[in-house]
Specification:
Helix content is 30%, strand content 15%. It is built from 18 helices and 20 strands. It is globular and about 85 Å long. It is an alpha+beta fold and 646 residues long. Strands 1, 2, 3, 4, 5, 6 and 20 form a seven-stranded mixed β-sheet that branches. It has a three-stranded antiparallel β-sheet with strand order 10-13-12, with no helix packed on it. A hairpin with a 3-residue loop joins strand 12 and strand 13. Helix 8 crosses helix 9, helix 12 packs across helix 13 and helix 14 crosses helix 18. Among the domains are: 137 residues, no CATH class; 117 residues, no CATH class.
């Protein structure tokens, strides 16, 4: 490699302007950090601005923070552009659905508002320079000029879909899928899965292998001829034989409606039982559609086309991307033109075009390949199916003290091979929308084992099964927000990521509106919103209901005070040195309700100073009242949160 004579210096270097990378940069910049963001493509936003026109989120209350700001700005765009009573505002569904160009504009505007962010487009990572467990600089090829340039920083974030930065630095990673014996996951390894009845089918071996989920492109199409570019010719490598098996899917009923209809899952009733069901259409504003490639037909041609991609150089990656582009366009051309396709289906398909006003510098075709999974970091902790898919109806999934966001999307893996089960139900590896309860994402899955000044908010440390739920852009935006704030804190303290103050990071996230512990019954306007989530990460609540205004039982308060005592003794200088271990007047076996006065007496046994703080400022109570009254769940949490914050 030619030596670089061009250098750039910043506090934080972020690789890749994916949604996770953008939010990493914004979060750090808003804390006063100088950030450089290097992107391979000519555009920001990854999949979100390259065809993925709807936010993959099932429970809107589970993820907030900077993702919510993005959604709010999308909605504001349509309100300002078209007015509150417009069809565009209705179709944007509160900002969760959007045109690719609108998503790119919102991302661009958000970054432009932060003067300390500088974005470098069309930069390909080449080499990582590190010493004694720390990255010192990263070399890039400037694809605009052909020059090699060096980026120097104190902290680094790998927000690429491929995990290129940490791999070049020699950090360990996983590629492919684990077998059942690795983590005891029920869905691990080679699997045939009935997505209608959500059960594992005969022929599944559970063995791990090198396979990864199929890639596609997420198309944007329009039914507006005045804004449409017709697909007049097939791709150069088009072979109709590739797509003829879709006729068998049609004949055998695999292009019909789903067993359960859910809005937003790409179920477009007009296309049921037609060849158009080779795609999954979702309406977005301005007569456009977010178009996925339906993985349920057995003719789905994309599995096995991507096996070389994750560890390949960019020349090979471009070849793989071109092959996927041609498969997508070839399928569209086939459905619109092939004489074997029923005429009514061809006529219906012929109403859709590539939009003139999208991807104008790329032939109106998305520029980002949908890399659903590539490398996965082998980090400080590995998130697995067992962490995200608990067995209890209301029992929380794994509780993590270092939780930085909630995840909520179903387990959803595209097919990994072209194998078909004996009953011809599904392609091997396809696990379609296996529902789970919201789960917590620990900071440790973003932290490498060895490199001290690197954080990974996208290609993080999970099993293949867990990655198939964590791989959603809203969640990655939240992980990026946490990564940017974490970078700020380690730069401020001059600590490494592994030793950072997690409690301080969580408090910053909560102050910025992020959800780190989801509850079914906790509203954003509840004064205890931050406090309950903070203590939920430390084991206060075992279920998804916190009942913030229920009266607190004596036995519950006793357990919580023990956790609180343990927590504050882990925070340097948080309590006077003469404090002794917890003493309490509370009978830990009592099922009686706890009064405010006995609660304050228990606090006094721990620290008279603590008690004085709570009496002096009683805003931790939902409403100020006499100490002879009973105390509520939310009030206990607010009081103890007040003490750790102070």
């Amino acid at each position: 490699m030619k030596l670089s004579n061009i250098q750039h210096k910043a506090d934080l270097l972020v690789l890749s302007a994916t949604p996770g990378g953008i939010m990493t940069a914004i979060a750090a910049a808003r804390m006063g950090r100088k950030v450089h963001l290097a992107e391979y493509h000519a555009h920001p936003g990854g999949m979100t601005s390259s065809g993925l026109g709807k936010s993959d989120i099932e429970n809107r209350n589970a993820i907030a923070g900077l993702f919510q700001e993005f959604i709010d700005r999308v909605k504001s765009h349509y309100l300002l552009q078209y007015g509150p009573d417009s069809i565009q505002v209705d179709q944007c569904k509160d900002g969760y659905y959007y045109e690719p160009s609108v998503a790119e504009k919102v991302f661009t505007d958000m970054m432009a508002e932060e003067a300390s962010i500088q974005v470098f487009y069309k930069y390909a990572i080449q080499n990582v320079n590190y010493r004694e467990g720390k990255i010192e600089s990263v070399d890039f090829l400037n694809r605009n000029t052909g020059d090699f340039e060096t980026f120097i920083a104190d902290a680094f974030a790998d927000a690429s879909y491929e995990g290129d930065l940490y791999a070049l630095a020699g950090e360990s990673f996983r590629l492919g899928r684990e077998g059942k014996e690795d983590f005891g996951e029920s869905l691990a390894g080679h699997i045939f899965y009935d997505y209608h009845r959500h059960r594992i089918l005969e022929g599944s071996t559970g063995k791990g292998d090198h396979r990864i989920p199929a890639y596609t492109y997420r198309l944007c199409l329009t039914d507006d001829p005045s804004n449409g570019v017709a697909l007049e010719h097939p791709p150069s490598d088009y072979q109709r034989e590739t797509f003829l098996p879709y006729l068998d899917d049609l004949k055998e009923g695999r292009l019909g409606p789903p067993a359960v209809f859910k809005e937003g899952h790409g179920y477009y009733p007009d296309h049921f039982n037609t060849l158009l069901r080779a795609f999954s259409f979702t309406e977005i504003p301005n007569r456009k559609f977010d178009v996925n490639i339906n993985p349920r037909p057995l003719a789905f041609p994309f599995p096995e086309e991507n096996y070389t991609y994750p560890t390949a150089d960019w020349q090979e990656r471009e070849r793989v991307a071109e092959r996927h582009r041609n498969l997508c366009l070839g399928l569209l051309y086939f459905v619109q033109n092939d004489e074997a396709v029923p005429e009514a289906h061809r006529k219906m398909a012929g109403k859709y075009f590539l939009p003139k006003d999208e991807f104008t510098d790329n032939g109106h075709f998305p520029w980002q390949l949908y890399v659903r999974e590539a490398r996965r970091l082998h980090g400080q902790y590995t998130l697995t199916e067992n962490d995200v898919s608990g067995s209890g109806i209301d029992e929380r999934n794994t509780i993590f003290e270092d939780s930085i966001i909630s995840g909520e999307f179903p387990i959803d893996s595209f097919p990994l091979s072209r194998e078909v089960n004996t009953n011809k139900i599904a392609l091997e590896g396809y696990i379609g929308m296996r529902e789970i309860k919201p789960y917590q994402v620990p900071l440790r899955i973003m932290l490498p084992q060895f490199i001290e000044n690197l954080i990974v908010p996208v290609a993080a440390s999970t099993s293949h099964i867990a990655y198939s739920t964590i791989r959603m852009e809203p969640l990655w935006m939240g992980m990026g927000q946490a990564a940017g704030l974490a970078a700020h804190l380690v730069l401020e303290s001059k600590e490494r990521f592994h030793n950072m103050n997690v409690a301080k990071l969580q408090r910053l996230l909560l102050e910025q509106g992020q959800v780190i512990a989801y509850f079914d019954d906790l509203k954003k306007d509840d004064p205890a919103w931050e406090a309950i989530q903070y203590w939920a990460c430390r084991g206060f609540f075992k279920q998804y209901h916190c009942r913030p205004k229920d009266l607190c039982l004596v036995s519950v308060a006793h357990r919580w005070l023990e956790i609180f005592d343990s927590s504050i003794h882990q925070i340097p200088d948080s309590i006077p040195s003469e404090e002794q271990a917890i003493e309490t007047k509370i009978d830990n076996s009592s099922s009686e309700e706890l009064g405010i006065a006995p609660f304050l007496d228990s606090i006094e046994k721990m620290s008279p100073e603590f008690r004085e703080r709570l009496i002096k400022d009683p805003s931790w109570l939902y409403e100020e009242r006499g100490h002879d009254q009973m105390i509520m769940h939310g009030e206990v949490c607010m009081a103890l949160y007040r003490l750790v914050r102070s």
